[in-house]
């Protein structure tokens, strides 16, 4: 597949969110199951090379992060709720690393599309830091979105296509287990009522 840059900020009721937190296979698999998210695309963002390949990104030389771009319906799920799920399924305290995946391409980052998303991201991080959900500081970058290149076809819906592969069983499947422990409707209520964030994240830390 010839990779292409996705046009951003089309004037319709749907919204875009772009986040990175380790291997994009993991994030894509989880967000494909979240109500209100209508499309999930794996790709590369925030680098210097135009139209990079997977092997180039994996080298760490292009500066890109493996990321997912989400199209979501704000009437069904908010950007804040997306970030709460995002933080619950990866470790935001390990710099340029998620488990055995090491390198800047695996950094934790939120690529905001407007100032409102930036403010929400900073607020969520501040709340999590204040609640001391993790023992270490959150290193998630909050940076402006620049461009997004769609990854090769075989990366799209990778978990769905390869559920028995060792990586999927060892890394992605446990993330599903974490998500399944969370009552999404209860999560929304807790966010709206500002209840203790540790209550929300405790299933993810066990």
Tell me what you see in this structure.
By secondary structure, the chain is of the alpha+beta class. The protein has a single domain, classed as 2-Layer Sandwich (Peptide Methionine Sulfoxide Reductase, Chain A). It is built from eight helices and eight strands; from the N terminus they run βαβαβαβββαββαααα. A six-stranded mixed beta sheet has the order 7-6-1-3-2-8, covered by helices on one side. Strand 4 and strand 5 form a beta hairpin. The radius of gyration is 16 Å and the shape is globular. The C terminus is likely disordered.
Note the main attributes of this structure.
single chain; 206 residues; Peptide Methionine Sulfoxide Reductase, Chain A; 38% helix
Strand content bin: 15-25%
Secondary structure tally, helices: 8
Evaluate the radius of gyration. 16 Å
CATH class: Alpha Beta
